[in-house]
Amino acid sequence: MHEMGIVLHLAKTLDETAAEHQLTAIGKVVLQVGEVSGIMTDLFTDCWEYFKGRHPVLKDSTLVIEPIPAVTWCDSCKRTYETVRYGKECPYCHSGETWLLRGNECVIKEIEAE
Amino acid sequence: MKLLKLDACVTASNDRDADALRAKTKACGTLLINVMSSPGAGKTTLLSALIRALPQLDIAVMEADIESDVDAKAIEALGARAVQVHTSGMCHMDAGMTTAAFDAIDGPPPDLAFLENVGNLICPAEFDTGAGKNLMILSVPEGDDKPLKYPLMFRESDALVISKLDARPYFDFDLDACMARARKLNPAVRIFPVSAKTGEGMEALVQWLLAETAAWKEA
Ligand SMILES: Nc1nc2c(ncn2[C@@H]2O[C@H](COP(=O)(O)OP(=O)(O)O)[C@@H](O)[C@H]2O)c(=O)[nH]1
Ligand SMILES: [Mg+2]
Ligand SMILES: [Zn+2]
Q: Which chain A residue shows the shortest CA-CA distance from B124?
């Protein structure tokens, strides 16, 4: 399962961050998740709730997920459009020469800790 | 409580593990190649053909395909060393798992180690395994539009093997269009159209592997 693998890495990255900054407890973790990152938010949160208990610095933390809308760039008509609504084909000129500008990221934006 | 702005990739810890594995394989002179494709594209068949075509190299295969240990047995029958990796249902290999698999190879470090990643065109491309080179296989029956649907893997690959070329008469696979799409995503990608069944195109791939293996030991 995809979400589980990512949660394991998130927990490990946070453990390392805590060690580096000498943090004893992380309270809030703000994660930015792109609309087409392939991460299912509910499943991700469930995995997080399950795994955080195994990490002493994370056990009382809460996960806040900020969605990032996906935007596609059309290289033919040089416009942008909503990826989820229109997909790969540009709604203006029907070109397929289009690229995802943003929306597939999964980034730890910030944490609250002591 | 204080606020720390991180803007860190969720998989930052994986990226560190991956760099450590690359440094380790560099030091011991083993080129590690991460082989990715959808299930059934022909990873095991291609690796078997390459082991036969490269008797001058000491080769090991780390087998992470979810289905049993059938694949590792097939590889060992050809005289290469094989390690069966248990991914516990994970849809990709990460650098930590790859390091454990690499450490489980018996005997001296091989010249070339292949990681047969889990059959999947999405997730494996998102995790740096620590390999020196990434190789993806796209088989003719999957269609020439795959670069459009799974751009990340095409971008991350150093080599693209277009496999099952012998099946071209039965599919409307446009080889030129597929290569153009792949190059648009990744101008530096090396493309090898092959058939592991008939041997067509295999020589160019074998030569590339020999050159890359030698280059890895030098630099
Ligand atoms: N016609 C043809 N079939 C192939 C070729 N390579 C693999 N196959 C067949 O494709 C199927 C899946 O191959 P396999 O190597 O197990 O794929 P994997 O799941 O990616 O390891 C098997 O039935 C192979 O015999 C090829 O070059 N030509
Ligand atoms: Mg296989
Ligand atoms: Zn357009």
A: A2
Does the residue B10 lie in any domain? no
A111/B6 Cα distance (integer angstroms)? 7
Q: A106 and B92: CB-CB below 8 Å?
A: no
Q: Residue B2: left (phi > 0), alpha (psi -120 to 50), or beta?
A: beta
* Chain A: closest CA distance from residue B205 (Å): 30
> Domain with A18 in it: what CATH number?
3.30.2320.80
* Two structure tokens written together for B57: 């190299």
Task: Count the domains in chain A.
Answer: 1
- Residue by residue, pLDDT tens for chain A (114 residues) are 578 888 988 998 999 999 999 999 999 999 999 888 888 888 899 999 989 999 999 999 999 999 999 999 999 999 999 999 998 889 999 998 888 888 888 889 999 999
Asked whether residue B165 is assigned to any structural domain, the reply reads: yes
